[in-house]
Amino acid sequence: MAEDYTEMWKSLGIDIENHNALLAGLGQAYTDIFLSQKNRPEGMKYFDFVMSEVHGLRIKELVDAKAQGRKVIGSYCVFVPEELVLAVDGVAVGLCAGAELGFEAAEALLPRNTCSLIKSMFGFKLGKLCPYVESCDVIVGENTCDGKKKAYEIFRPLVKDLYVMDLPQTKSDTGRLMLKEEYRKFIAKLEKETGKKVTVQSLKKGIEMVNAKRKAMIRLAALRAADPAPISGLDALLINQVFFHDDPARFTESVNKLCDELEQRVKDHKGVFPKGTTRIIISGCPMAVPNWKLPLLVETSNAVIVGEESCVGERGTRWLTEVKGNTVEELLDAITERYFNVDCAVFTPNPSRVNHVKEMAKKLHADGVIHYSLQFCQPYIIESGPVEKELEKSHIPTLRLETDYSQEDAGQLKTRIEAFNERIKRK
Amino acid sequence: MRYAGIDIGSRTVKLAVIEDGRLVLSRKSATSHDPLGIARDLLEGVDYDRVIATGYGRHLIKGHLDCPVISEITAFVRGSRFFSDDCGSILDIGGQDTKAISLDKAGNLCKFEMNDRCAAGTGRFLEVMATVLGFTLEEFSDAALSATRAEKINSMCTVFAESEVVSLVTQGAARNEVALGIHRAIISRSAGLLNRVSHSGKIFFAGGVALNSCARTLLEQETKRPVFVPPDPQIVGAVGAALSASENG
Fold first, then answer.
1. φ and ψ at B123, to 5 degrees?
2. Quick one: pLDDT at residue B249?
3. ipTM (interface predicted TM)
4. How far apart are the C-alpha atoms of A217 and A214, rounded to whole Å?
5. Of A241, A342, B189, B202, which one's alpha carbon is 20 to 30 angstroms from that of A249?
6. Span B1-84+234-249: which CATH code?
7. Rounded distance between C-alpha atoms, residue A316 and residue A336, angstroms
8. A70: which DSSP letter?
9. Given this model, what pLDDT does residue A1 score?
10. Is A422 in CB contact (< 8 Å) with chain B?
11. In what order do the strands lie in the sheet with B109-114?
12. How far A374 CA sits from the closest chain B CA (Å)?
C-alpha cells in the first residue's frame, strides 16, 4: 500500500468515499487493460508508477509547489500554451476527464445530448472526484466548440477562478492576430495571479522545456513506424495522456529513456505483436484518462494502433515553438505561430488535418484509419464524412465510429472493428 | 468434407452445412434466453469437419465449441456470393441491427455501415408494431400491401413509434394504412444507410425482414434498383461462415 493521502485529499475538499471507489475501479481497470499486455517495454514501469500515484504523489507535488508560492494552472485544451505558464514559474495541468462519472449531476446542469468530454468535466467537479481540479488556482477555459464555450458559462460559478480564452475559428490573418492578443491577455492574467513578470529569459526557458517534452513525443511517434510495433497503442496513448499532468522535465527524461529501449527493440526486430499485424491509426476526438475503450477493443481484435491523430496524440505534440527573438513580443509571435498550426476541427476550413492523417498513414505504414468521434461532438462528426471520403480516395481504408464513455456499445463496436480488420486483410 | 457455419443472431440462431460446394443442411431456432444451449441443440447430431461461428453471439460460443469466429459482415459478404454473383451491395435487416455493405467486383468487402446502438428500424421494430396493430407478421405484410395510401410514421424509436401508432389508430386511421406507413419508415431508413455505401446495382436483401414481401417491394420502389432475395434470406450469414470454414484449413 502506498502512502495514505486521505488527509491531503480531505484538505482539497475531495469526496473521500466516492474517490476511494473511483481509485479502486481505476486500479482494477489499469491492471486488466495495461498490466495484462504481453511484451511490454521495461520503460513503461515509470508510467505504471505514475498511474499508481496519479492522485497521490503527483498531487502532493502540486500541493508542495503551491506551498512554495507557485500557482497551479489547469486547462482543458491544447490551445492553452504551457510555455506561458512555465514562464511565470507556474505548474500546468490538463484537466480533461475520460470517465462516465457524475453524469446524473452533470445532466442536471447540461442537456443530455452533450458530449461525454464536457459531461465528464462537470461530473468530476460536481462529484468532488478530481484532486487536479481542486488544486488549481486558475482554470482556463477556451472557446473551441459551441458545447464547451456555452458549458463554461455554467461551469464558472462552480470553480474558484475560471479564465476563458477566446480562440479564432479560421486560419486567417485576423485569426492569427486574435490568437496573439488572447495570449497577450493570458500573460497579463498569469502575471497578475503569480506576481511574476514574463521575461525573455523565463519565456525562453519555458519554450525550451515544453519543446523538449514534445521532441521526446515526436521521437516516440516515429519509432512506431517499425513492424513489429515496438510499443502498443494502449501504452503510447497512456504516455500521451500522462503528458498533460506529469512534471515536464521528469516526463521528458522518462520518455527518452523508453525511446532508447524502443530503438534497441526496433534493431532487434522485437515488438509487442507479431510482425505483419494489422496497423491502425486512430484519428479524431481526444481520449482523456481513463478513456481506453477504443484502443482496447482494437488491440484485442488482432490489430495494433501505430498512431493517434488527436489532441491527446500528434495534434497536440507535433509542432515545436521556434526559440526565435530577443523580445517577449517576438517570442510571443513564435508561440502564436506554433499554436496557430493546431488543426482542430473547430477551424473552418481545416484541410491540414486530413493531409496530416494521410502523411501519418504513409510514414507509419498503416493499413487503415479508424475515425473516432464522441457522440454529440459536432465539429469532428461533421468533419468525419469528408475525411473518410478523402482517405478512401487515397486508398486508405477508413472506418467511422461514433461512441461515448459508456460500455454498452462495446459489442457493436467490436463487430465493426473486426469486420474492418477482415476487410483490410482481404486486400 | 462437411463445413458448418453457425450464426448466433439476437433473435434467431441459424446453422448451415456445406458439402462439395452445396448447401446440404440448414436449421433455425429462436435465440431465447440461452443462445449457447440453442446453438448446441442445432448442432446436435450434425456431422461436420469444421465449424465457424458468426453473429452477435460469436464470442459467446468461443471456448464452448472452440471454433474460430468471423464478423457477421464478412459472413454476409461470403454468403451472398453463394446465392448470387452479380449483387454489388447487401442490405441485411436482422432482429436488432441493420447492415449495409458494398462489394467490389471480385466480391470482397468494400464499405459497410451499421445502424446505431439501438434497434430502431430493425426486425424487432416490425415485430413490436405488428403486435400493437394486432397482426401476425404475415398478416402485417399483407395488410400493408393492400393499402393504397400510407399514414406517416415519424418516429423510428420502438417506444415512441408505439405511442404514435396507438394514437393514429385511436384517431380512426385504417390499420392497413398505418401498417404501410410503418413499412415505409423502416425501408426508407434502411435505404438511406445503403446509399451511404453504394448508389447503384442489384441489392442482395437478407435477414429476417427480407421474408416480408411488402419490405421487398418498397425497397425496389425506394431505391429504383433491382432487389434479389435468396431462397432463405435468414441463413446467409451461416452459409458465409460455413464457406469460410471450407477455406481456412
1. -60, -40
2. 54
3. 0.86
4. 5
5. A342
6. 3.30.420.40
7. 14
8. -
9. 46
10. yes
11. B109-114, B98-103, B87-93, B202-206, B227-228
12. 13
